[in-house]
Amino acid sequence: MSTHVVIMAGGVGSRFWPLSTPQFPKQFIDILGCGRSLIQLTVDRFQGLCPMSNFWVVTNENYVGTVHEQLPDIPEGHILAEPAARNTAPCIAWACRMIKEEDAQANIVVTPSDAVVMNTQEFQRVIKESLDFTASRQCIVTIGIKPNRPETGYGYVCMKGCDTDGVAPVLEFKEKPDLETAQEYLKAGNYLWNAGIFVWNVKTVLGALECYKPVLSEQIDTMVRTGNVKEIFPTCEKISIDFAVMEPASHDSLVYTHPADFGWSDLGNWSSLHEKLAHDAQGNGSVGNVSFYECDNCVVHASGLKRVVLQGLDGYIVSEKDGQLLVCRRSEEQRIREFSSAK
Amino acid sequence: MSTHVVIMAGGVGSRFWPLSTPQFPKQFIDILGCGRSLIQLTVDRFQGLCPMSNFWVVTNENYVGTVHEQLPDIPEGHILAEPAARNTAPCIAWACRMIKEEDAQANIVVTPSDAVVMNTQEFQRVIKESLDFTASRQCIVTIGIKPNRPETGYGYVCMKGCDTDGVAPVLEFKEKPDLETAQEYLKAGNYLWNAGIFVWNVKTVLGALECYKPVLSEQIDTMVRTGNVKEIFPTCEKISIDFAVMEPASHDSLVYTHPADFGWSDLGNWSSLHEKLAHDAQGNGSVGNVSFYECDNCVVHASGLKRVVLQGLDGYIVSEKDGQLLVCRRSEEQRIREFSSAK
Question: What tens digit of pLDDT does each residue of B35-46 get?
């Protein structure tokens, strides 16, 4: 039984504009200033778990060239080009159905391409344990991140019991909570963040799709047999794997979680990037050649500029890429999409 | 008697960093975003007063190429390359001594290269009247800008009487005053800003130099006769034309002023640039493709960027050139030199 890794890289996020753009989204950016893009870091953290020939990337057809450039060792036939964005269920169904062609016994990890993990060693330990678990069982393991704050920006996994050491059954999935609920979750101890990292064997995932989404399952099967991606994929139901499979499977007691604490962040916004960057004594985090004078709690990404001098800014985002510059208050970051479409 | 124009372009100002740098100082920048650099605008405003073959530029040897690029119609032999910065007296002495070789009767205007004039028609009227005045008289006319505020950043010319319509005798020159003194000057009505624009005929200026600065006069004469600029120019006294000639000449009643009101600014700092730019309703002035959200009284020069979005900035300077970016409070602009040398 071989291990395969499926990287979902279809995101077109605009929350980091102008750093990320629809032409060059977050997963392809060296957002931490470490010399590797998020998708490269994603591949890096799986090194040793399986050979490069077992990696798969599902992405929009516009990004195939970028994926190939950034990850030249992934076989070209393993870069699956979506002609349209259909959310995660069709994406995962396609990749897993393709994997079945290569290894009908494969054990699979599915992961987003735009999150960061600080402790790779612990990450590998958790993934290996989860793979061991699914190798011999007809079940789904979702990695559950132990929360350290009442975060309202993530979905939660509610597990049975509070033993966070190994794999445990999932009772149910919870959508993004309000603050009060998030505080209760944190206190309760058996609620984990849903990181969107799933471990299962190929039979389990294809069986679950056939059971809970028979039409989609049939479409993907036909698509892979005929090779007619262009026409069939865009007609697939636009639905997340959480709604399509995880929720119904959890009601059937098929879902488990591996609680984990490996410094995960989805880097979903500037605050989470700020948190991951090294700070000066005034709480300024930056990527690029940046000098701060009388600045506090700023987060700056300007690696495309030779030199940046900032003075007198308290709590600002400064972001530059390819000749586009944004300076805005961190409190206004939810308006970045609005700013990005300014005339 | 022909008219010659001498443009002093040796400035290495760093007050507009990173817009201006020692490699590319202010006079060569399109700081107003009008498509012409300050030195080009300086030449433009003299058009019609004399042929291009009567223009002279004195600049540091490092800038000769830039001058030639920006002002291709000025004869190459009229671009005088200073091997070292010696302030304005040696610069003017050299240019005027060169002009004497071409026309021993020449009438001369000397001007800085980095100021702006909004009303060119009025500027030409004032210059013509001053040239008429010096054509037949052994005297110096300095253009005196009628002040509209108690400015402490300029030197002043004190004229005899308050008739600001035509040429009037200068009693004395005053250095940059404190605010109280500047307020008195404004009230008195016979104090004008010294714009550093001088009109005189070649005999007057060379005679005055011989009289007040005989060593410098002799050095420049030898330099022009032998062509040995490299060795002689750097040994000349480093002194301004104000100290070398204007002050002593004013004591000898040789200096006159033409009061003027043609929208002059020396663009000596960001505030004076802000004043000259068009503003939006919130007082933001910009050069470049800039969108403002909740910004007030900002001054932005970022014509090298494709697009700039600023949010929540009150009273800031934003300046970009060649991959260097500065964001600082307008109140801190006197520290820009410090910022520019940040590691």
Answer: 999 999 999 999
From the DSSP assignment, how many helices (H) and strands (E) are in chain B?
12, 17
| Partner A contacted by B334 (CB < 8 A) | no
Which helix H or strand E contains B199, and what residues bound it? Answer: strand B191-201
Looking at residue B74, its amino acid is I
Q: Is A124 helix (H, G, I), strand (E, B) or coil?
A: helix
Q: How many CB atoms lie within 10 A of CB A133?
A: 18
Task: Copy the structure tokens of residue A336.
Answer: 């970045």
Amino acid at B334: Q
Hey, CA dihedral for B282, B285, B291, B296, is it positive or negative?
Answer: negative
- Encode A101-112: b = buried (16+ Cβ within 10 Å), e = exposed: eebeebbbbbbb
| CA distance, residue A28 to nearest chain B CA (Å) | 22
Which residue among B318, B335, B339 places its CB closest to the CB of A327?
B318
The rounded distance, in Å, linking the Cα atoms of B182 and A319 is 43
Tell me how far apart the alpha carbons of residues A95 and A107 are, in angstroms, rounded to a whole number: 13
pLDDT digits (tens, 9 = 90+) for B2-53: 999 999 999 887 789 999 998 899 999 999 999 999 999 999 999 999 999 9
Specify the pTM.
0.88
Max CA distance (Å), chain B: 63
> Can you tell me the ipTM of this complex?
0.87
CB-based burial, A144-168: b 16+ in 10 Å, e otherwise:
bbebeebbeebbbbbbeeeebeebb
Q: Which of B68, B66, B79 lies closest to B22, judged by CA? A: B66
DSSP letter assigned to residue A133: H
Smallest CA-to-CA distance from B189 within B226, B158, B214 is with: B158
- A323/B309 CB distance under 8 A: no
- Residues found in chain B: 343
Query: CB B25: neighbour CB atoms within 10 A?
Result: 26
Q: Mark out the alpha helices in chain B (DSSP H runs).
A: 38-44, 64-70, 88-102, 120-135, 179-188, 202-212, 214-226, 229-232, 241, 247-251, 270-276, 336-340
Q: Which of A322, A325, A329 sits opposite B312 (nearest CB)?
A: A329
Q: Is some CB atom of chain B closer than 8 A to the CB atom of A293?
A: yes
